[in-house]
Structure formats: structure tokens, C-alpha cells
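Support reply, case 0932

Customer input (verbatim):
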Amino acid sequence: MKLFCALCGRVTLSPAVMVGNEPIGPKCAKRAGLLPLAKRKGSRVKALAPVKIDRQRSENLDLFEVEP
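Our regenerated output:
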């Protein structure tokens, strides 16, 4: 499932904060000043812990392999 940053529209694999149902990427959240707001008690901005997404490696690693 791809998530898109609500501020810039780029794909974000690990959103830093959620504003309602909208994910905000880490760079945009930092620039917009949302990280300190997320730490306040009773804030509507929800801070998310960094989530590591396992990406599957491609089996096409022999692209630059020299044939004998």
C-alpha cells in the first residue's frame, strides 16, 4: 500500500505524523513544524513511530555480470 504525503504528494514509506487520515512525510512534517505539535497532550496531530518496511530484493542482480 502506497501512502502519499498530504503536503507535497510524494510517496512516503514511513510517515512521521498523521493529521486526521492524511499522512505527512518526515521532511514535510519537520518543515511545517508538526513534530512539536504532535508531542503536545491533546493534540489532533498524531506522531507515528518510524516503521521499517521490508522491500523485496529483485532477482535481476546479474545485469552487469560478465558472461564467460
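We compared this against your earlier run and they match. Two observations from our side: The first helix runs from residue 26 to 32. The chain has a mean pLDDT of 77. Please reopen the case if you see a mismatch on your end.
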